[in-house]
Amino acid sequence: MMLTSFKLLFERPKNDSDTSAKVIAFYKNKILILQNKDNTFELPGGHVKIGEPLLIGAKREFKEETGIKVSSLRLIRKIKNRVFYTTTLLNNNVILSDEHKNYIFVSKSNLFKYPLSLKARKDLKYFKPKKIKTNDDIQDIS
User: How would you classify residue 131: left for phi > 0, otherwise alpha for psi between -120 and 50, otherwise beta?
Assistant: First the structure.
């Protein structure tokens, strides 16, 4: 019984594809992240339906999770089973689905100060601040 409950909790619907579409949504130069029930944060988005165009799936998932209908998404990256779009929001009137318990708009510089889910850490790694070399790290080449 316990295994059945666990399986039902994490099993995807049969019409979901293996591809997830995530949206990096900016509002006043801050990124929207959603808080999961386990207190980690992630980008809005989810699995695209089988046969559904990626862009349509990304818009649908974003609306389902945030209550915000976006008209314009720009593709920024596509890797195996994951596609990323970006958009700029005109308002911050987020209405969460039952999947998440909270949300926050966070600056790029503070993004990694939040407990991101493992997938979100991977998804957002190119936003992670790069280490700045100090004078001790720089050597002249002669």
Answer: beta
